[in-house]
Amino acid sequence: MLRPIGSSTSAMDSSATAGKSIFRHSVHCVSRESRQLFFACSIQVQIRFMICKRERNRRGFFEFLLDAESMLKFNPRFLIVSLGNPLPKYESLHSAGHFVLNGLAKTLHQPAFREVTLGRQSCLVSQGPKYILVQSPTYMNTSGGFVANAWQETVRKYGAESLGLVIVHDELEKDFGVVKLLPWDRSPRGHNGVKSVRGSLSQKKYPESPFARVAVGIGRPEERDAATVSRYVLKKISREHQTTLEEETPWDVAKCLMELENQWRIDVQGGSGGTTEP
Prior knowledge:
Layout: H1 10-26, H2 32-55, H3 58-66, H4 68-73, E1 77-82, H5 96-107, E2 114-118, E3 121-127, E4 131-135, H6 144-158, E5 163-171, E6 179-183, H7 192-200, E7 211-217, H8 226-234, H9 239-247, H10 249-269
Parallel strand pairs: 1-4, 1-5, 5-7
Antiparallel strand pairs: 2-3, 3-4, 6-7
Helix pairs in contact: 1-2, 2-3, 2-10, 5-9, 5-10, 6-7
C-alpha cells in the first residue's frame, strides 16, 4: 500500500491542469468518436486526481498518469444500477444503493439524474461518456427483470465487448459505510434483490463483459430474527446516515469502479480476455 506523502498538492494541481488543457486543445482536431474517448479519459484523470488529493496520495496520482497510454487504448463503459425500493417514498437503509448513486453522480462529475425510459420502464438516469448511472425503479425484491432489460438495451447500443455491469446494493454483513467490490457469483447471503438480478441475468451469456457487485455496508441489529432485521432495514433513514451515504461513501465506490476497470484492462491487454473477478 502506498503511504500518503506530504500535504502539498501544488504539483498535482499543475499536472491535472496541464492534462485538462491538452484534452481541451485536442478535441477540436479529432473525430466525434475520438472526442468521446478524450472526454472519458479526462474524467478518469479528474476522478483519480480528486481521490488521491483527498487521500493526500501524490505518488498514486503520478503513477496513474504514467499509465495514461494504456488507458487511451482501452476505455470501456459501465452500466451501474442501484438496487432499492423507490425513492423518495421508501427512504430507508435498504435503499442505500440509491443514496450512494445520488452522491456518485457528483463524485464522477456526471450530469444530473433525469427521468428517461430504459429497460422498458421510466427511471432516473445520469448518462456520462463512461458511466451510465441508473436507479432501479422497481421494488428491491423484483429488481431482476428491470436490470436484465436495461443491460440488454445498453448492450445493443454499445456492444458487450466494451461494456461492464455493476449493481450497487446494501449489505447487512458489513459495518455501516464500508464498501466492498464483490464477484458477481458471490453468495447473495439472503439478499432478495441480488437473488432476483442473478436469476434474471446470466453472466455466462456475456463472457467478454465483467459483471460485479458493490456492497455498501449498513450494519445490522443485535437481534437477528427476521422481524427485527426487517424493521431495521425498512425504517426511515436518519439524516446523518443519508449524508454519509451521499457524501462520503461515493468516493469508496469510485475507487471500486477504477479497480474493476484496471483489472479488466489488464485481462484484455494481457490477452487473457473473459470476465473479471475482483
